[in-house]
Amino acid sequence: MQLSGINLNTDFKPKLLYSLKNYSRKKFLSDLMAGIIVGIVALPLAIAFGIASGVSPEKGLITAIIAGFIISFLGGSSVQIGGPTGAFIIIVYGVIQQFGFEGLAIATVIAGAMLILMGIMKLGTIIKFMPYPIIVGFTSGIALTIFSTQMKDLFGLTMATVPSDFISKWIAYIKAFPSIHIGSAVTGIASILIIIYASKFIKKIPGSLIAIIIMTVVVYILKHFCGISGIETIGDRFEINASLPDPITIPINFNTINLLFPTAFTIAMLCAIESLLSATVADGVTGDRHNSNTELIAQGVANMVTPIFGGIPATGAIARTMTNINNGGKTPMAGIIHAVILLLILLFLGPLTKHIPMACLAGVLIIVSYNMSEWRTFRSLLKNPKSDVIVLVTTFFLTVFFDLTIAIETGLLIAMLLFMRRVSETSQISIIKNELDMKTDAEKTVDNDKLSLPKYVEVYEIEGPFFFGIANKFDESMKQINREKAKIRIIRMRKVPFMDSTGLHNLESLYRLSKKEGIQLVLSGVNEKIRAMMDKSGFSDKVGHDNICSDINKALARANTLLQ
Fold first, then answer.
1. CA–CA separation, 46 vs 66, rounded Å?
2. Could you name the CATH architecture of 428-563?
3. DSSP 142-172
4. I need a labelling partner for 432 at 20 to 30 A (CA). Which of 5, 242, 491, 527 fits?
């Protein structure tokens, strides 16, 4: 089945099915070790991302468990690890503030449906070509925004509410800074230092987990044995439910779809971009090749199921995916094992998470935001052409000062406009009236380098895509034609790779104008796709099938016949 040229035959081929065909004990042991390590790495991140997103810590864990399992079970990558990521923090927090958790659940389910539709329509390969400046722009913007949200917990500031917009937030921080809690500040800064330096001495255990264990023990001792209070912990703010929740009903109707569609679109696009980027990076390391459409379908299913159990949006996580690869993960079984490890931690060690200091989690997220910032890449892109810099800077500032939805939509719009300008600059339209230079022409059939044109014949050659972006250039060229002399007008299209409806409309306008002035139109070098488009629209019948020729030699022969 096809819809507007899009093939709807499902390209759904989970990697797990292929991996199990030649699965061995050696691969299982390798996946087991990688899965355990990735599960441990994912623990502090899932908790931190959940809290920073405005939900309870176990919801972050539930997302990592359910989404992580589904993405590995159904996904198109052998080593992709799914779960909550830092990129969604700002979106999730904003949606919850505006529409509540129910609104987030609805938007996430709609986004999941969009992702499944993208996979079915085989749009995975297209999404991978998202302009790099847009990706860096909103990733760096998200990183700065995440960093700005952690100041209250990092320094233990006394604030009734934290403003949502960037500038007001920092003004409020400055006003509240005299209320800094020294214990919280020391805890947060110590956590950051532990994460930075632990990786230099201990390679297998993530620095974030080491920091959480050390600072949780230290703060527990200070609170219960030294009488030092005021260092806020997870248990002071949240009630931990160490079990999988019962499924809930997501109330979706046309009103909620209409209200939350823009947010759902942003979630779907961000999920698609981040997951396919992660899978592509993994392919570069492993030498494997992921199925992008299968991956989108798996991401969609995960985001439709997870909210039913109280989870938040999830996608492929680059850091956890690379951890999986570096620790020997070979197949999707490693991702499944990582989800099982997190489930066991939730069920048996969940109550212990209430002792984790909030300042420590703030330190973890500050390191995450630093790693996300890609400031070196951002700086290098500023040396690129102005068009790339405009897209980069615009996306970055819109992400920071407005929101990600506006940033992605505006960034895409600017990128498309600049792309169209570049394509239109490469498209050339020229008029040849006396002779054709055939020296390097692929359609040359005789030894003569020059091909003389019969009297009353002119050749009108289009080089490059013939689409709405060059409509003005086409109209300007038409005005230069000497309409008094020509009787035959050959439109040479051998170098036109594709044509849209505007290009076809321009050809039809030229045909009507030529017919009105008694000039016969002949087409040359039309490729199969453009010819099919002409046949379907009825243009071939208007201009005459005999007047659509495969090359310039046949077109000139047809012109001579018409002149006689």
1. 12
2. 2-Layer Sandwich (3.30)
3. HHHHHHHHTHHHHHT---S---SSHHHHHHH
4. 527
> Between the CA of residue 266 and those of 76, 91, 346, what are the distances in Å?
22, 8, 30
Which residues 6+ apart lie within 8 Å of 187 measured at CB?
215, 218, 219, 231, 357, 359, 360, 363
How far apart, in whole angstroms, are the C-alpha atoms of residue 261 and residue 269?
A: 12
530 exposure class (CB count in 10 Å sphere: 0-12, 13-18, 19+): buried
Residue given tokens 């069920």 in the structure block: 347
**Torsion angle of the four alpha carbons 232, 237, 239, 240, in this order, in degrees rounded to the nearest 10:** -60
Q: What is the pLDDT of residues 368-396, one digit of tens each?
A: 889 888 889 899 999 988 878 888 898 89
- Kindly report the three-state secondary structure assignment for every residue of 240-253: CCCCCCCCCCCCCC
CA 89 to centroid of chain Cα atoms: 16
Highest-pLDDT range among 175-189, 401-415, 512-526: 175-189
Domain borders along the chain are 25-418, 428-563
Whole-number Å distance between alpha carbons of 87 and 269:
12
Give the type of residue at 228: I
